[in-house]
């Protein structure tokens, strides 16, 4: 796998605390991603996501900085996902809130920016 990154930027009309909660809680993620999941906002917890194929993708929580950053590392999934990191970087600027999600700790990452606007 080549070193690299992908970046996605999204604008969201929601307070930054609500965006953080949507990414760190089972209730929040089940509303926006998949309903088959086990998630806890705890350092070291391994979150599990199943997309209906009875095969859970597992992401370990490496960092939680309230309303600022969430960092996961993929520890179990398809081979191309192993050692991929997902970093949700939340920002608020000029009444706009954003979340940047870079994937990849070692080899590759995807950055997704979610910007919350009033």
UniProtKB/TrEMBL annotation:
It comes from the Bacteria. SUPFAM superfamilies: Bet v1-like (SSF55961). This is SRPBCC domain-containing protein. The lineage of its organism: Bacteria, Pseudomonadati, Bacteroidota, Cytophagia, Cytophagales.
């Amino acid at each position: 796998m080549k070193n690299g990154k992908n970046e996605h930027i999204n604008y969201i009309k929601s307070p930054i605390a609500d965006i953080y909660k949507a990414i760190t809680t089972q209730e929040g993620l089940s509303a926006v991603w998949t309903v088959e999941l086990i998630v806890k906002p705890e350092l070291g917890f391994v979150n599990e996501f199943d997309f209906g194929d009875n095969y859970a993708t597992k992401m370990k929580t490496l960092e939680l900085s309230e309303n600022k950053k969430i960092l996961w590392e993929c520890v179990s999934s398809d081979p191309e996902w192993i050692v991929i990191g997902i970093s949700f970087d939340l920002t608020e600027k000029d009444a706009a809130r954003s979340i940047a999600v870079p994937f990849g700790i070692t080899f590759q990452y995807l950055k997704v920016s979610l910007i919350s606007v009033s």
